[in-house]
Hints:
By secondary structure, the protein is an alpha/beta fold. The chain has helices at residues 15-26, 39-51, 66-80, 103-131, 142-146, 152-172, 190-193, 197-205, 215-226; strands spanning 6-9, 30-35, 55-60, 85-88, 134-139, 177-184, 237-240.
Amino acid sequence: MLNGKIAVVTGASRGIGKAIAMKFAQLGATVVINYNGSAQKAEEVKQSIIADGGRAVIKQCNVADYDACEAFIKEVIDQFGRIDILVNNAGITKDGLIMRMSEEDFTNVVDVNLKGTFHCIRFASRQMMKQRSGRIINMSSVVGISGNAGQINYAASKAGVIGMTKSAAKELASRGITVNAIAPGYIETDMTNVLSDKVKEETMKQIPLGRLGQTGDIAAAAAFLASDEAGYITGQVLAVDGGMAI
């Protein structure tokens, strides 16, 4: 389904990004595994893809850094000559109540989650415009739609991603580029594993389907949006949340 495609996945060393990278590779794409912190985890993802018969390379970049992002995307284009799919998945959380949240914690989350998405779109879209084709998939969140106490920075960044997605979709559509967002609900990852059983129980009450999502649920949605079958879909937000945002 993605044979011959070059796919860049940011924050692909773990969690949702890892699942998307592995899914894309299984579908025939050459995957660029971006990471910022853990080279070892990125290497493990690469080796898993290769062991499964796929193709992958690793590129380190802090997406919050504008100049580093420009160099990162240039390096990918120099190596492969094109970028067909960009998944802006890199993200962080620094939760806290409004009255206790430091400016630094607010800024850091916005810099990675929102500005990082802008940086990658900014530089990858230029190549996609030359190609007159491309798929951009941005990772939002259910809390970007409904908000969440204790996550004003994260919710603001993810709501911003939705606005960015719709604006970019309008700008890039004439060049054959689609831009969509996925809004995951509570997905079982390293981030959710640290939650207490009480918090998980309370969360479960908000999910009509009655279970936490799996990273594979998000990877499947990303694979669809990256495929030819989704060629007439742009500017949309696909909630993969078990019904939380209903």
